[in-house]
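Researcher: Next entry in the queue.
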Amino acid sequence: MLAIDPTARVAPSAVIGTNVEIGPYCVIGPHVAIGEDCRLVAHVHLTGHTTIGPGCAIYPFASLGTPPQSVHYRGEPTRLTVGARCQIRESVTVNIGTQGGGGHTVIGDDCFLMVGSHVGHDCKVGNHVVFANNTVLGGHVTIGDHVVFGGGVAVRQFVRIGEGAMIVGLSGVRADVIPFGMAHGPLADLIGLNVIGLRRRGAAKADVQRVRSAYKVLFFGEGEFRTRVDRVAGEYSGDPLVDKIIDFIRSGKRPLTMAVKRNEADQEA
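Model: Structure for this entry, 269 residues:
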C-alpha cells in the first residue's frame, strides 16, 4: 500500500515502490526511483537521477540527489544510488556525480548516516558504513565496508578508507587509511588497529594477533617502507586480513596515512 501525504509533491514520472510512506511536505523529482518499504518521514527532498533502495528510512530535511558542489558541473544527468535498508537522518545531504568523476555517487546497503552528514559527488561508500553526526566527505572519496566515522570527521577529496577502519571523532583525514586501521587527529595519523571492530566481525584472537604483528613490521620495522611492505607480503602470505592491507597499499596512487607510536595501554584498547 502506498501512503502519500496530501502536502507532498511527487512528480508524475517518479517511480514509487510498494508499501512506501511519503510524509508531509516531501518533494520527489521526476527522475527519482524509490524502492519498496521505504519511509520518508517529512520535508525530504529527492531530486536528480536518484535511486533509493528498498527498506530505507529518510528523516526530515534530508536532501539527496542535489547537484554536485563542483565548478566543473554543467548540469549533466549524473546519478546517485542509495542501497537497501539505509538509515538517513535529519539534514543529511548527498550529491549526484560529475561527468569527469564517473558520473555516479554510490552508497551501499545498511548504511547509517547520522544528523548533518554529507557525501560529496562521485563518492563510493561501501556496505554497513556508519557516519556519526556532521561527518563530511569531499568528492571522489572511496569508503570500504564496515567503516565507522566518529562525529565531526572531515575526509579530503580522493582519499580511500579501507574496509573495517575506524576514524575517531573530530579527525581530518588527508591521506588513505589502511583496512582495519584507526586514525585520529586534526591532521589524522594512524594510531593503531580497530581491534574492537575486528572482534565484532568474528576475527579470532590469533587472527588479530597476526594483523598486529604485521602492522608493527609495516610501520615500525627496519628499512624503507616499500621494503617492509614486500617483507610483510611474503611472511604473511595467505593471511586474508593482512593480504587486504597489502593489496590496499599496493593499489594506492596517493599518500598513505602513516602510523605514530602509542603506549601499550592505548594499543590494547
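Model: The first helix runs from residue 195 to 200.
Researcher: Noted, moving on.
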